[in-house]
Structures are given as C-alpha cells and as structure tokens.
Structures
1.
Amino acid sequence: MTDVPYAKWVGRHQRMLIGGEWLPAEGGRTFPVINPATGERLAEVPYAGAAEAGRAIESAQKAFPGWAERPAAERAGLLQRAADRLLADRERLARLLTAEAGKPITEARGEIAYTAGFLQFAAEECKRIGGRTIPASSPSKRLLTLRHPIGVAAAITIWNFPAAAITRPVAPALAAGCTVVVKPDERTPLSAIAVCEALQESGLPPGVLNLVTGDAPAIGQAFLEHPAVGKINFTGSTEVGRYLMRHAADRVKRLTLELGGHAPFIVFDDADPEASVQAAVASKFRNAGQTCICANRIYIHERIFEPFAARFTELARALHVGDPQDETVRVGPLINKEGYEKVAHHVEDARGKGATVLCGGRRLTGGAFAGGFYFEPTVLTGVTDQMVIMQEETFGPVAPLLSFSGEADVIAAANATPYGLAAYCYTRNVSRVFRMAEQLRFGVVGINDPFPGTPQAPFGGWKASGIGKEGGQMGLESFLETKLVSWGV
C-alpha cells in the first residue's frame, strides 16, 4: 500500500500515544483494521487493555496541573495550529478515513473540515472562559465564581465519524484545561491516530493527550474505576450507555452520553416538493445510512405521498453504489458483516410482514462488490409499527415511507419512541415551524435542514438517546467545575 496517499498510516504496525510517546501494547499484541469496501487488511493496531489504559490515565493525571495553569491564549493557539495541520493535510486524511470507514470520499473531505471546526471553535471559546460576580444580599459580603477544569477526561468514540468524533470531545476538554485519554472505536482507529498526531505535533506537552486502542470493555472499565478520571464522554449504543451510567454512579463520575437514535423525517404538503425529497434522500443515505441522525422513519402527508414516493424512489435508484474512493460514488459499504446482516434482517422482516419494496432490497456481492459489505439503497412502503424497522435504528440504506393525514397524528407518531436524538420537518408554514420545533421531543430538530450538526451548536439527545451536550458553548461547559467564593468584607 505504499502507493496510496495515506500510506503513512497503513500497511504497518501502528502505535498508541501514552505520555508523549508512541508505544506498542504490552507483549506486542495487535488487531487488524479492515477496509469495509474490500475486506482487505489495512494495518495492525495495538491491542491494549486495562494496564495500558491505567498508564495513560496516570500520564494524563501527571500532566494536568501544568496544562490547567497554561494561559487560555496559549491553549487556543495550539488548538488552532492543530486545526491548520488537519486542513493542510485534508486530502490524505480524507482518503484514510474512507479506507477504514467506507465513507464516500466526498463526505470524508467534509468530515475533515468538520473535525478541524471543533478545534477552531474551541480555540476561540476557551479565551472566554470566566467566572461571574454576583450581587450579595448582605452589604458585608462579595460573591464571585471561578471556573476550573474538571481534571482527567476520558473519551470513548464511535466509528461512523472516526475523525470528528475525536475532536468533538477532545477540543473542548483541552480548551477547558483538562487532560485527555481517548479510546477510539476498534473498527476505525487510524483516523484517530492521525488526528492525535496532528495535535501532538502542534505542541501539546507529554501526557496532555493520550490514545489507547484495543480491548473496549477492559479500557472502559479502567476509565470507570480509576479515581483520577473525572468525566467520561461516550458515543455509541444505548445499552453500553446504560452500563456506563450504572457503574459511573459508584464513583459519581460525570458523564456525557450520545447514544442511539430513531429519527423521524416529516414532510407536509406545503413543503417545497423537490427540496424536501432531495433532503430526505440526502439525510437517509449519507454514509450509507450509518449516522445516528439519519432519517429512519419518513412521514409524508397523504396528499403528496404518491408523487413524493415516486421521486424518492427515482433518486434512490440513481445513487451510485461502489468503491467509496471513487468521486462519483454516493453510497459505500456498511462497516462490517454485523451491520450488513442487521440491514438485511430489517428488510426481510418488513417484506415478510407485508411491506412493498419499491427498489433495492438486495445485498450486492461479486464483481466490484466482492469482499465488501454492500447493500442496495432500498425504499419500502406499506410499513407498519409491528415491523422491526419501526422499532429499531436500522443504521443502513433502507428508507421506510409512511403517510399521515394530520399534524397532531404525525407528532404523536414521531414522538412514540424511547429515543430522542434528531428529528426533521419540512414545511413552508411559519406557524407550523414553531409548533413542530416545540412539540417534537428530540434534542436536535432540523427545520428545512437535513444536516443540523455544527461545531458551534450543542448536540445531544433526549430520553434514551443520551445525557448532556457536545459541541458549542455547552460542550465546553461540561468540562468545567464552578467554584463559589463568598468573601466577607
């Protein structure tokens, strides 16, 4: 693989970052990183466990006092330099991301810019960290607050945004003055290594940022049990989030959890017909449907259902499926065999219970698809609540289309889920915009906008979709403690 633009990060044994050094796991243990488009091995990465995680935490603990005392302007400059490095190397990083995650190259380039955006925002926002003076009820007192970094922060990240998932928690943590230990998803550790390299090469002192790869349960347990870890950020399944909540309670650790979703996409009959269908296709099929905020249930007003479904199906059929390194490809592979089989199960369950397949519905194998985990963009109608696809997040390129007649009914249907991460609504009625924004019980609502995530805004779910926010000022606040100083004068 020496002829590929991302050769620096593949075709060899990678290292973890602990205490400013790039190290192997104890005993030289490794695990493979697989290209989901071909099934080929990209690299070997250290398979670390509790011992290495403990060393990383101790390195972060040792580095914390010096980093916390570093002036905010210096921390800001370092974060901005790291962002500049990522953007300067955007093409190589995007190609690497596509190789390990299967994300189409056009989307991967956007993710690298998004990754840098979290660093840029944190660099600016950290200069504004400060306390308040508060009017006291007694003339002999003065009240003020001070802000302090929480200490060592741990981040457990997900594979579907393998670069941005690193900087979304790491950038605000570093900006706040925390030191960090990152555990990236074992399916996509190479982008995490590359992002951490950019941060380290921008001048981070040893131990301020640490990266461990490998045994997820063992590393996660080390984060839970070590008393130096003050906060854990986790992006992943609701089941793992529940486990972290139960066990973090033993030491009263602070948590930010970004968990599963089941996003409704609602189109009213007064919406712009072409804009709404284009947006629904974009929301559903980006990254082959593998984002936590992809449209998972598409509700269309009954007056426009037939033309909308026809146009949606036409656009879905036209999506180019194939090698995600190809500039013309819009749908790449699923991340692995398990994801592939889950999508197939959802389609077969729906078909067996009476759904109609308007297009797709098949695994793609052989020829250009050999070795990869490809599934055709699929459109279903005749979907009912008894089908698995209406109860679970599919995380794949399958779009169930449902009709509705009234606003109150569709709000009730959209909210009838234990999840509450993202929802979408397309309408040109200004009054309805406010009603939908207020009544949809989700942490993120896109009104005439299929891509609501941005570094300067808070992102996080309600209900079983998570606790707390990442991104924006609220994401930075989550890494800070507030101290009241009451001064008798």
2.
Amino acid sequence: MMQDEWLDIVDENDRVVGQQWRSEVYRQGLPNFRVINAFVVNAQGQLWIPRRTAHKRIFPNGLDFSVAGHVEHGEGYDEAFARELKEELNWDLAAVSYCQLGYLSPYTDDVPAFMTVYEIQSDETPAYNSNDFSDSSWFSPSALLEQLIRETHPAKPSLAKLVQRFYLKY
C-alpha cells in the first residue's frame, strides 16, 4: 500500500497555512491543497492517456492525465511536476519539451484542488511505471472527450474538463 503523503494546506489565495496528511485531506473533502496535471501531446495533436491500476485508492482503473500528482510539503508546482514525471514516466524534466498550460483554483475554476497544468510535447509512447498505470492509448482530444462524456471509460472527473478547456476551445 502507498505511503500517506504530507501535503501543504493553502488558503483561498494558494498561500501555505499548514500541513495535513493526504488521507485526512480526502476524508474531509478539503479543496485547499495543490496538485499538478500534465498531458503528453504528439505532433498529430493526440493526447497520451494512461489507465490507472486497479489497486489505486482514488479512481482505480480510471483514465488519467499523462502525469498527475500531489504537490508535497515544501515543494512548488514545478518541483512536483519534475518528481511525478520521473516517478510515473521515468522521464527527466530537463530532457523533455514542455510548457505550462494554465493554473486553476477550486474557488474560481470548478476543479477539486489548486492545480498547475502542463503539456509535454513528445511522439514517444512513455514506458510508464506499472505500479501507477496498467495500459495506455493515444486519443484525439475530441475522441477522448466523447468517450468521457459517454462514460465509455471510468476516469478522473477533472480529465474531461481540462481536455475541453485546453484542447477543445469552442
């Protein structure tokens, strides 16, 4: 079983005001913590989307972001992104082409936590960590959103929202 993470608790302006165990944050349904999410995007504009393993505590077997994780105590968003990228995909941040897509707040953007969203440009299918993911596929943003809306695949709830916001601007 995964070790509990010690997270920074933040106020409505994303300023650190304390710390709490991840399990307690989720038990209380708190929105005042930080996460990072990232999409791997190939030259054809397809998103690399992995499926979470069955033993995950949150959203088992669900489709996930290419990289996702909590910002742990004392980390900034970029440090958490680098750590999660290495843990989940075995990629070094210095060796990938990436950019920040946006920053979202649970108070203004209807997301479950404060989050920074990144995009990694790569045509390489990641050799992911099998403790985190069980399989993966490349999807066009519209095909992924259609499957998420139809609930063809279980998924993290914010996945559809972020695909629509950053890749399907109407």
